[in-house]
Amino acid sequence: MLHALVVAADEAQHNPLVPAPADLIYATLCFLIILFFFWKIGVPRFRELLDARAEAIEGNIAKADSAKAEADAALAEYTAQLADARAEAAKIRETARADGAQILAEFREQAQAEAARVTAQAQAQIEAERQGALVSLRAEVGTLAIDLASGVIGETLADDEKAAAIVDRFLADLEASESTAAEDTHSVSAKQGK
Asked: Is the pLDDT of residue 19 over 90?
């Protein structure tokens, strides 16, 4: 029984949280062996893996930076092209406006020239018709005047030269009396206007 007491007393001093010295040695030895293999095999593989990942990340960052630089360059080029296109469009609009104004001015000049030509042609035609009417009227008035003069005088005016001279003198007197009457009317209306 004493032995049981010694074993019980021995067990009473033994702490369950503290391992036995032999267990401690075996555990430490196993830990060191595992640490050695981990240090020689595991850590280099992790470093390689982490280095490869870091390089991939840095490569992606470099690619992203180059893509951003290309995008910025493309944006700058697009902006420049857009500005050039706008400037060219403005230039085309100004050219079109100037051409339109020039065409409009040319059309006006042509219309004025055409109107002047038509007016001159109409005046020439009117003057020709007036001269034709005057000649015809003179001939008829001459014939009537000769007939009338023959009836008043009681003589026949058969001499054409004499008849033409009488008709011309009569018409000249008639025109002179019309022009003096027109001048008198004009001077009277000018006096009344004052």
From this structure: no
